[in-house]
């Protein structure tokens, strides 16, 4: 009754569980490397479906207008719909599947707890314990996802020069990264950029750091800072 009363949430729960399943079979290719590539695509397509459903839930009245598009781009679900479309037809990259896997796992765990609560407060205690441990590490998981989002930017450039990516991919991914940096709901991308800058500046200011390395890092920091969007 709980699942039928929340059909859209249930559909997203099922698609997230399927995303976790496909992502796991890509990361751990138990069925062979050829099959792993197909599971990579399935995971991203399932994530695109979940993101589209979530976006519809957040913005139920579609309008073909600039204002609606601007509002949609503020939603995290729109960001990951774009993310899935960027990588679904690209060469499989393990780094790119981790954000999809972990976000799906976190959201599926939250809804699974609601399902267990609907069954009874004492149902499946072992599963409840696992869900509680996952929830306790949520902040670390979100930081790890943000770290993946950041380091995928140079990875897309490397893929381009190695012949495994398209010319447009780094530019589209840069747009995705600016959206994540400006996210209202998830500040972890901004936080990680700040933390990485502090760590790098601390290391290069040590006397043992070569001057040319210090200048290169400072120039890189200045360049990246200029590319960062303004956050209200």
From TrEMBL:
One of its GO terms (cellular component) is membrane. GO terms for biological process: endoplasmic reticulum tubular network organization; membrane organization. It is found in: Membrane. Keywords: Membrane, Transmembrane, Transmembrane helix. InterPro entries: PER33/POM33_regulator (IPR051645), TMEM33/Pom33 (IPR005344). The chain crosses the membrane at residues 12-33, 80-106, 150-174. Its main location: membrane. It is a multi-pass membrane protein. PANTHER family: TRANSMEMBRANE PROTEIN 33. Belongs to the PER33/POM33 family. This is TMM33 protein. The gene is Tmem33.
């Amino acid at each position: 009754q709980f699942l039928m009363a929340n059909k859209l949430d249930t559909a997203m729960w099922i698609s997230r569980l399927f995303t976790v399943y496909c992502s796991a079979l890509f990361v751990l290719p138990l069925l062979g490397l050829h099959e792993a590539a197909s599971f990579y695509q399935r995971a991203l397509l399932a994530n695109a479906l979940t993101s589209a459903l979530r976006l519809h839930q957040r913005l139920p009245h579609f309008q073909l207008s600039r204002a609606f598009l601007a509002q949609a781009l503020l939603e995290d679900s729109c960001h990951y719909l774009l993310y899935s479309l960027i990588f679904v037809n690209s060469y499989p990259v393990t780094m790119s599947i981790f954000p999809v896997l972990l976000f799906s796992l976190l959201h599926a765990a939250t809804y699974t707890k609601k399902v267990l609560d609907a069954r009874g407060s004492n149902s499946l205690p072992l599963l409840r314990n696992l869900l509680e441990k996952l929830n306790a590490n949520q902040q670390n998981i979100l930081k790890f996802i943000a770290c993946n989002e950041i380091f995928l930017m140079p990875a897309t450039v490397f893929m381009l020069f190695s012949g495994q990516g398209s010319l447009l991919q780094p530019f589209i991914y840069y747009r995705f990264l600016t959206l994540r940096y400006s996210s209202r709901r998830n500040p972890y991308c901004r936080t990680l950029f700040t933390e990485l800058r502090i760590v790098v500046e601390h290391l290069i200011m040590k006397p043992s750091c070569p001057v040319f390395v210090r200048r290169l890092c400072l120039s890189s920091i200045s360049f990246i800072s200029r590319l960062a969007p303004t956050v209200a």
